[in-house]
Structure formats: C-alpha cells, structure tokens
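Possible race condition, two jobs.
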Amino acid sequence: MSSSFYETERALAQYMILHYGAPEWQLPSGAPPELADFPVRCVQEGFRWEELPPDPTALELGCAVGRSCFELSRRCRRVLGVDRSATFIRAALRLQAEGSLRCPVPGEGEEASEQRFSLPPRVRPERVVFAVGDALSAGRDEPFDLLLAANLLDRLADPAAFLDRLPSLVRPGGQLLLTSPYSWLPEYTPRERWLVPGSKRVASLLERRFTLLRRWELPLVLREHPRKFQWCLPEATLWRRNWD
C-alpha cells in the first residue's frame, strides 16, 4: 500500500463507509456499537469544548472525506480541512455542494454495489473549506483555536517535522488532538524517521510547547468488504498550546 492507494475507488469506499455509513455497514455482526462513527467521536469526545473560546476556528489535517470537518462545523465558525488525496477532497466537496454522493462499495472478489452516502443533519457545510494539500506545509496563514490530526502521523514522510510545526498552527490556549496507531510502513515513512515508541517520542517532541491534557484509546473499525474488517486501536492525546 502506498499514497496512491488513497486515490483508488476501493479506498474511497472504505472511507465513505467509515465517515458516513450506517452502523450496520461500518461494523461486523456482533461488534460493540460504540465502535462506529470514529470521525464523530473524535470531535465529540476529543476536545474540552468548555475551555475553548466561543465560535472557535478549526483545522483538520488528513481530513479524508470530511466527516470530522462537518461535525466541527456545528461548533466552529470556520473549518479548514486538508488532505493529500484529491479523490477524497473531491468527494467531500461534492457532499458539501449536493448533500449526497453515490459510489461503488466492494463485496467479495470483484463484486460491488453502488451505495448512497449523505451529509448528517444540522451540520453547517457553508462554514467548511476543503483543500488538497500536504500536512507538512498546509495552514500557514494563521493559527487556529483547535487542530485535529486523526491517524495521519504514520502516513507522513517526516512525522517529526510535522510535530515541530504544530505550535505555529495552534493559538496559545488552543487545543491539539492527535490520534495514531503508530503503524509505521516504509512506503510512507523512511525507517530512520519512524517515531518508536510512538507514544514517548511524540510526547518528547510536543511537551516543550504543549501541555498534555489527556491520553486514551480511541478504537475504530475499517471495513474492506462484508467479511473483512480492520480493527485498529489508535492512541489519542489531547494537548493545550502553551503561552510563549
């Protein structure tokens, strides 16, 4: 698997199900229902909203097909979502403009069925801007009140450089939510740049400019086809940007 995977129909289907699919599509039979809706849980459970200013601004790096951005739009006056996959961003833009999107969903072998995915109710799509971009360079114009990077770190060519630039993207007093399974692969990250062990290395790179507020596990299930699901156990960490 390489970055080109995220431009394929198969990847699009997996992430459309993860972001917008009904729970019976997202999860295998018998799975705990609380494993559904990972992008929603990031927003609802991840931040200390009572400690943020009214009508905050938000940046999501690695936004995929955009569900967390739309969830952020319920609470934030402006949301910027950035992803390297042009396929993912096109899907997010179409959902934003039309409210729904149809795409083929894989079955067994070469079987596929076309499914319709829709925006959830009461989101504010007009508050969201989507852009194709690199997490190592996006969002330079101004800092944000909150930043979300969900399961992005181990898909970057230079994760340490990414962590090093985060203080410039989050306002003092703002919040940063990172999730990662630390599933390092050489096709994304050169071995000499792997942050192992991930939890300790990430903390050592952030703790000078951020204060750790919480550390917990935020599991998810990624459907490949009706009889194959990936169960992942990302670590989630919530940080507050220090005042310099």
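Job #2 (started ~2 s after job #1):
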Amino acid sequence: MNLIIPTITITIILSITLTIILPQTHINEIKNKLILIFLISLAPLNSSLNHKELTLSSVPLILTPTENINISFTLDTLPLIFIPVTLFIT
C-alpha cells in the first residue's frame, strides 16, 4: 500500500483545483466530488489486487523486553475492495 500517501495528495490537489475552476452553482457538487474521490481511491486498490497482496501487517504494536505484539489481517477480495473506498470517502 505504498500508493496511499501520493493518492491522498492527488485527491486533495484535485479537489482544491476543481473547486477553484468549476463554478459553485452546481447542485451535484458533492456527488461529483465523491465520484472523483472514489475513482482516485481505485489506484491503490488496483495495485494491491494486481500484486495479490491479501495481508495487511503493521510494525510491532507493543514493544516489551519479553515479547513484541504484531498485528496482521488477512483479507479476502471483498474487504480489500471496501477498505480504500471507505477510507477515502469518509
């Protein structure tokens, strides 16, 4: 998921430029922005589906001298599609 930060910056830049370029009289402005964010969120999704990455792992959550706690989630296709969309739209 190395594309999350560039995708977030592209989303912010595109949403700012679209609000400047397009007039504010559109009734469907929110709908258009959500569609744009959804389409941009498909980039990391496409990358993770193409590379068959089905496991999300993190750095050790709790570091103690005796043990380290690591968390990893194994996902099937449906949550893998759902996570980027929900993160970018919310």
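The mean pLDDT is 70.
Logs attached separately.
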